[in-house]
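W.,

You were right to be curious about this one. When I first looked at the sequence I had no strong expectations either way, so I just let the prediction run and decided to look at it fresh. Below is the sequence, 528 residues in total, followed by the output.
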Amino acid sequence: MREIFQFVKSMYDNYNGTGMHMALFFTAVLYLLLQKKDEKRYVFLGYTLLFFIICFFPLTAKIIIACIGKTVYWRMFWLLPTVVITAYAGVQVIMAAEKKIRRYFLLFVMVLVIAMTGTRVYNASMFEYKQNHYNIPQDVVTICDIIEEDAKARGIEEKKLIVPNDLLPFIRQYDGDIKMPYGNNAVRGETIKNNNASEIFRIMCAEHQNWDALSFYAAMEGCSYLAYPVNEDVAKAVEQNGYEKIGSSGAYDVYRQTREKSAWDGQWLLTQHGGAEGAQLMFYTLTDNKGHVVVVDGGWRSDADYVRRELKALGNHVDAWFVTHPHRDHAGAFYEIYKKPGKLEIDKVYMVDMAPVDLCLSNAPWDEVEVYEKLLTLDIKELSYVHPGDNLNIEGLEVQIFNAYEDYVDEISDDLLNDGSMMFKVTAKEESMLFCSDVGKGMSDYLLDTYGDKLKADYIQMGHHGNGGLKRDFYEKTGAKAAFFDAPDWLMNDRSGHYKTLKNTAMMAELGAKIYSFSTTPNQILIK
């Protein structure tokens, strides 16, 4: 109840600004309270008292919030007749004066007080001199006219446009025929239910736009046009993603997407997700233009609700779920979700036929097996175990298994749960990504000798979150142009020497790889 009261108070304070007009209002209320001969005062005073009781009493406030939502609760203060009561009290004061000269003097004083305590409305940043008779930014008019002319010339019926947030409120004011993936409600913080539109909004709000991901989501959402502030680097990036410049308003360039949705056939958008603040974990999703979804791990048990939300946004259907090994920061969320899947459908689950719990602990007594033991209690009907050398095809995505627990792991390593985890490469039309899960240095030589050039990949998920895990020559062999560290900032930047993440970050940068970590999640790349 206290939290609700504090919330209402904060809304009240924000609504009132400096509060000077409220000072006049309460002065008027006090005056009416003292005017015992005025019977009409009871209407004003009674209404005011009732308003404050309803709006500030936690129970009634909670009911109102449930009906209209938190974000617009401040509008309740429109119902407080501050202007009417202040004006009424002012008239009463003036009329109480017997002489006209005194009345004029009191009127002048009141006008002066109102002028001095108020704020000139046109000083606000939202106001500017109008540039056209529509009273909207001229850039909006020019952008819409460019799109209409282009669409007419090319026979494009559905004109759907992506713009930065500063133009968002004005586009449909000028041209209702131009559609948008989301409205101004997105800027106000309201949830966008459409996942493609939600991702477009997130990318447009980011400090630096991921044009690969934006073009993918724009194609999925059917957004054929893009307007963006003039920038040479941006122009090059968007043109590489199929956009063609069709005009400029001066401040904004206007582009049309030249690729059909089918141009993304066989390509997969990979997303690296972060989890609970301060924790290392592993959770990736891969999606294609037909709505297929592949999941890798999922993180801790405490991440289950987050994973559920992400998968719900993707359609609540998983074509394949890879659980690399049964450590809690990899398989915990999967266990919780599979135990209570709700409306989520999972077609296939791929796991490692890991060494028995007793054998794992006899080799590494320090290890933890809580989630492993819980996984063994599940009856996973969709389960298939993978083995080194297996080749899978998930809706056109090629999957090669390079490592999974077998006798050779026991001969090389004592760390069976990590070194026996699944290492696999996914390949789209042209590009690939190697997932190393938690495989460690001790396995490097064996894997290099066994697979050699097959380990080459465009992208790589670093072994054991980038902390330890595999040797330099292994990473050199892969030749990856980007490296994903499944690690939070404290692990990425640790200088104690206890962890190897900082050293491995420098090594991968030296090898020419772009570095991704949890500091910027969700991180996305298009595996072409």
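Here's what jumped out at me. The chain is about 40% helix and 15% strand. And, maybe more interesting for your project: The chain has a mean pLDDT of 92.

Coffee later to discuss?

I.
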